[in-house]
Structure formats: C-alpha cells, structure tokens
Amino acid sequence: MTTTPPCQPGFDRRYDVQGLDAIDVAVLDTFAYVRQDDPAAYPGEPMDIEIITDEFSPVCPWSGLPDFGRLEIRYQPREKCVELKSLKYYLTSYRFVGIYHEHATRRLLADLTQLLDPLSMTIRCDYGMRGGLNTVCTVRYVAPERREDALDPQD
C-alpha cells in the first residue's frame, strides 16, 4: 500500500501579486538633453547613455517570489533624458507585480520609449539562475528615421 506523504507546511504557499496597473509610469520624469543656457556645441553627437542596476526585482506570477535581475538600459537621447530618481521609483513599482521576464523587459522598453522618444534604446535584463536555467532578455528600439538611414546603401 502506497501512502502519500503529508504536505509540508509552506509548499503550497503562494504570495499575492499585483497586476500591471501597479507599474507606476506616472512617476517617470525627464530633463532636457541639451541645456538651453549652454552655448557650447558638443562634438560627437549623439551621446550614448547607460544605466545599470542589480536591483530590478519583479515577482514570479505563479509563486509571488522575487526574481532578481541585472537591468541594463542603453539609449541615445533625442531631446530628453530620464531623471534617475524617477526611474528608480518606477523600477521599484515592479517589486510586487507578477510578470514574466519577457513581458517585464518588453514593458520597460515600451514605457521608456514612449517617455523619451529616443533615437535608439536597448534594454537587457539578466534574471539569473532559476531551476538551473538562466534567462537573459534583450529588446531593441530604433527610431523610424534611423532605420531608414541604416538601410541607405550610400552610407
């Protein structure tokens, strides 16, 4: 006769998660890429901006347990830069949102490209090992006029 072992306390536990509406896009703020009071022309435009953090932590939509990711945001601004304190608050708003790695990475790109209208942006998130598997998601955006330039055979 086979008996089923008693369920260990906690093995059936699931933490509640918040929905996508908890992502606080309204907190994001920007500042001008070029200062109006600075008459100096900067050679080598456009600038590449990289923002990196090891503190991105949405949660698993199934268990509610945190997923810790190394987030890398790289972009070439057009007219606006993201203000870092507002970005930190925005990223922190993911802390209890149940979202798959792939969806979180795409959502970051969608929100930030809408905010900044950059010339280009790449978002990469390395979510680390879970169950022996490592997930790294990378999404890219290139402004339409830059895509046409990239296809120009005269370059």
Automatic annotation (TrEMBL):
The keyword Transmembrane helix does not apply. Signal peptide: none annotated. It comes from the Bacteria. Its main location: cytoplasm. The active site is at residues 60, 67. The keyword Manganese does not apply. It is found in: Cytoplasm. Its EC number is 1.7.1.13. One of its GO terms (biological process) is tRNA queuosine(34) biosynthetic process. GO terms for cellular component: cytoplasm. It catalyses: 7-aminomethyl-7-carbaguanine + 2 NADP(+) = 7-cyano-7-carbaguanine + 2 NADPH + 3 H(+). Keywords: Cytoplasm, Hydrolase, NADP, Oxidoreductase, Queuosine biosynthesis. GO terms for molecular function: hydrolase activity; preQ1 synthase activity. Belongs to the GTP cyclohydrolase I family. QueF type 1 subfamily. PANTHER family: NADPH-DEPENDENT 7-CYANO-7-DEAZAGUANINE REDUCTASE. Catalyzes the NADPH-dependent reduction of 7-cyano-7-deazaguanine (preQ0) to 7-aminomethyl-7-deazaguanine (preQ1). This is NADPH-dependent 7-cyano-7-deazaguanine reductase. The gene is queF.
